[in-house]
From TrEMBL:
Keywords: Lyase, Protein biosynthesis
Family recorded in the similarity comment: Belongs to the prolyl-tRNA editing family. YbaK/EbsC subfamily.
Protein name: Cys-tRNA(Pro)/Cys-tRNA(Cys) deacylase
Entries under InterPro entries matching the protein: Prolyl-tRNA_editing_YbaK/EbsC, YbaK/aa-tRNA-synt-asso_dom_sf, YbaK/aa-tRNA-synth-assoc-dom
Superkingdom of origin organism: Bacteria
The keyword Cell cycle is assigned to this record: no
Pfam families attached to this UniProt entry: tRNA_edit
GO-annotated biological processes: translation
GO molecular function annotations of the record: aminoacyl-tRNA deacylase activity; lyase activity
Enzyme class: lyase
YbaK/aminoacyl-tRNA synthetase-associated domain span: 36-150
Length: 163
């Protein structure tokens, strides 16, 4: 008798339940450095709809989150320009973990340890449904992208590098 894997609550899923946000759970087998491409492949989901949660910092080491399509990279130069800072760079993994409270590879934009501004690639908001990390490696959640604006006050930016 096979049964679905039960995923224990994470700070992200607890937060979403408390806010009465509907979401679907999508566990997969985490692979080191597999990233969005690996989860997309295992779950049979379009990589463009699998959203990466990236913790970055500005020149003053102030952290921020940028949400990006799984099949795109962030232009840090354009991001800095659009948010009015001199420079933006990815945080070192241990720094990102300290800011978010999540293990790298399992970072959710919801219920982070430290409140950080959230930016979202504008095209993500046009999708009918997205998958993003649920707060643990090997665990994505499916949600309506409008939630990013309402719950996270995510600011739309256009910073995806084209292929």
């Amino acid at each position: 008798m096979s049964k679905a894997r039960h995923i224990s609550e994470t700070p992200a899923t607890q937060f979403l339940r408390k806010q009465k946000v509907a979401f679907t759970e999508h566990p997969y087998d985490y692979v080191d450095h597999g990233g969005a491409a690996e989860s997309s492949r295992q779950l049979g989901e379009d990589l463009h709809h699998v959203i990466k949660t990236l913790v970055m910092e500005d020149e003053s080491a102030k952290p921020l989150i940028i949400l990006m399509h799984g099949d795109r990279e962030v232009s840090t130069k354009n991001l800095a320009r659009q948010i009015g800072v001199k420079k933006v760079a990815p945080c070192q993994p241990e720094v990102a973990q300290r800011h978010s409270g999540y293990q790298v590879g399992g970072t959710s934009p919801f219920a982070t340890r430290k409140a950080m501004p959230v930016y979202v690639e504008a095209g993500i908001l046009a999708l009918p449904r997205i998958l993003l990390n649920g707060g643990r490696r090997g665990f994505l959640i499916g949600i309506d992208p409008a939630i990013l604006r309402t719950l996270l006050k995510a600011v739309p930016v256009t910073v995806a590098l084209e292929d």
